[in-house]
Design a protein that fits this description.
The chain is 13% helix and 36% strand. By secondary structure, the chain is mainly β. It has a single domain, classed as Hotdog Thioesterase (Thiol Ester Dehydrase, Chain A). A hairpin with a 5-residue loop joins strand 3 and strand 4.
Length: 178
């Protein structure tokens, strides 16, 4: 799945990316609870990727509610965790959460389109500082987070690229391959 900006430029997503060789590569589908397509109880998110950024819009169904018919806080944390982990991908990084701090600001309702976005605020070697937020359809701030994300080692990255169907020699995206 490729999104096209108004300018006509293709945008990388959690489903396919443009390598530094300008070729499009599709990720092999996987079972990730948040972004995988093969998990029958998953969130099935499609993440749009930018330069040090990631964003998605996702609608929680009734299966994701907690107390008082509101979207469960753990699901909101998963939404933030996913966009925040994808944000470093333009640096040719496959990042995992080292720590994350969340502040919940307002409840989210099932059936409401939730806009989540994340951006890299700093990088030191393989450690990425990332911020993120979720906003409701009316623009209200639902949750915000900061976190540290650890990029994969070169050996781990090569294995991940092979697992998800990307040629090992192709840098994922962006100018800052490791």
């Amino acid at each position: 799945m490729s999104t096209v900006k108004e300018s006509g430029d293709k945008v990388d997503t959690s489903r396919s990316i443009t390598g530094q060789d300008a070729r499009r590569y599709a990720f092999a589908d996987h079972h990730c609870f948040a972004c995988g397509g093969t998990n029958p109880i998953g969130m099935h998110m499609a993440i749009e990727l930018g330069e040090g950024t990631a964003r998605t819009t996702w609608v929680a169904g009734r299966d994701f509610v907690g107390w008082e018919e509101k979207v469960h806080g753990g699901i909101l944390a998963t939404l933030l965790d996913e966009v925040m982990a994808w944000a470093p991908s333009s640096h040719d990084s496959w990042a995992v959460t080292a720590e994350m701090h969340i502040r919940y600001r307002a409840p989210a309702n099932p059936g409401e389109a939730l806009a989540a976005r994340a951006w890299v605020t700093s990088r030191r070697r393989r450690i990425y500082e990332v911020s993120g937020e979720i906003r409701g359809e009316d623009g209200r701030l639902i949750a915000e987070a900061t976190g540290r994300f650890l990029g994969a080692s070169p050996t781990e990255k090569a294995g991940l690229k092979a697992r998800y169907g990307l040629p090992v020699e192709v840098s994922d995206a962006g100018p800052e391959g490791q």
